[in-house]
Amino acid sequence: MIGYIKGLVTHIFKDSCFVDVHGVGYRAYIPVSTIDTLTIGRETMLFTYMNVREDAIVLYGFATMDEYDLFMLLIGVNGVGPKVALGILSAGRPDGFRLAVHQKNMKVLTKLPGIGKKTAERIVLELHDKIGAVSDDSGDVLPDSDSTVPQGIAAEALAALTSLGYTSQEVLPAIEAKAPQCQTVEELLKNVLRALGSGR
């Protein structure tokens, strides 16, 4: 089992990154919150979980031990695999998720990617006494209901820009503003980069 990796970030993708550890490139699948902490060309340390299947060995990475611990709790729930657990962590803050479980807020939990009513019930049943104390001001597990996940060319532009070292928080406002005016990814990227350049 690989407990953590420490090395140079060489590539950043939509849901993963490459980390060069003494000349060996490890691909780690990571939540959005971890992506936002990475910069190409800078060193990082990721706490990791290695999922061994018959057809693949997949490494999952996390910037904080808090995210790692929550991920490990989630994959221990029947019906929640690593991909679903990663989606939950990408949907919001760990404390927000803990609060939803603590309050048995099924409405919030069933909005999470890959989580239906039965799985949400199992999460509450199995994790309610394991997640520890949470405060009522921990925030929402999900972004504001009015916010949307980028789709189509917006999603492609976001992936391209994060691979260049930009963070999601840095580029999303410009992408959302320019996407309705653009027909292609290339056009959108040019407009977003121009907007980012003028704002600096």
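Above is the first protein from milestone M3; the second protein from the same milestone is given next.
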Amino acid sequence: MLHYSIISSPIGKLCIVKSNKGIKKVLLSPDSPFEKYLYNNFPNQEIEKNNFELKEACNQINEYFALSRKKFSLDIDIHLPSFYRRALIKVAEIPFGKTSSYKSIAMKTGSPNASRAVGNANANNPLPIIIPCHRVIANDGSIGGYGGGLKTKRFLLELEGTL
């Protein structure tokens, strides 16, 4: 069973999805309605809207945008290839208000030449905001890419005071 809730945020509507093990997905402004995305991407799951089940996750995300939360404390349930998992664990360690480069994250994973793979891991991050891939920037200091769009990445970095 998957539960989901949709909240408004300064970057648009967000859909948070939770399994019985933890937060599984955070969707930023999809091309199609959230529900259609969920049914297409989780075809063998029962899916229900349940704000109560996601109350804590929604509260923590709202606290983040209100600048009263700098680190998330949520159970997560994600399944990723080994390198993506290692890279996103390192991304999750980047503190609020700080940035790190794709190259630095690659080095921390023990794969110093894997900057591009770190970018791919970020592009496939199922939990943007919670795993703060927006804090990963290019080695030259430019902001690089972002699955939620550069406008959103710039907003999040400005919110945290890093731009």
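Note on the second protein: Helices lie at 34-41, 55-65, 82-92, 102-108, 115-123, 150-159.
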